[in-house]
Amino acid sequence: MDVKTATRVFDVINLFAEVRQPMIYSEIARRTEIPLSSCHALLRTMVAKGYLYAPGVKAGYYPTQRLLHVARDICSADPLTLAFQPLLGALRDATGETAALASLAGNRVVYLDVVESRQKIRYSDEPGGFMYVHASAAGKALLGTLAPDARRRLLDSCEPLPPATDGSPIDRATLEREVEQGLARGWHRSTGENVEDVAGLARGFLIHGEPFALVIGGPKARLLRHEESAVKALLDAYAQIPPSLLAAG
Which pTM was predicted? Predict the structure, then answer.
């Protein structure tokens, strides 16, 4: 269940990231669907805390540099992404494709870190980006780390399953079979269900009992043409995860 005030703060921040210009509070309220009085109070609180400022009497509001500095300080000390960044970089270099670390956020997949391919045509995403759990290699790998009861409850919360990118239905029995097949071979695959013409490969695992996955994403034709070597690189990267982290799972 969302906490309304917290959700509204993030809605305002994400709106500024999208618009990238000052906005008056009535425009912010309209675009975030926050009642005018509540929006005004929220913006004044964010000003009082140093996260927004008013560049002119009628120019509206805009975020201060405080948000950047706080986020940078937090992210620079994240022990998990710091541990995985060298592995993601090596995985990107070994495959030529985008590499990522993913986890679950409710019933969706969220990227915790992304190292993009250097190729001109590539799969592009960013930390904090979401995907459907049922239509991605990362989602299948994360589902595979869950106990059967937990997996069933998560999939129950997703129904009805949204269709694939091409509009074709995704059958739950087929999905569950693909999760089991991936567990048996040690990695999972997607072929355009979430993003058209993009394929993914993923290896799931647990840390502190929570599901994570190493992911490779790239243009479908290119990645599947080199799938054997990409899977080897993926499993090699998994083998290099510090044993102390996996033992915590």
Answer: 0.79
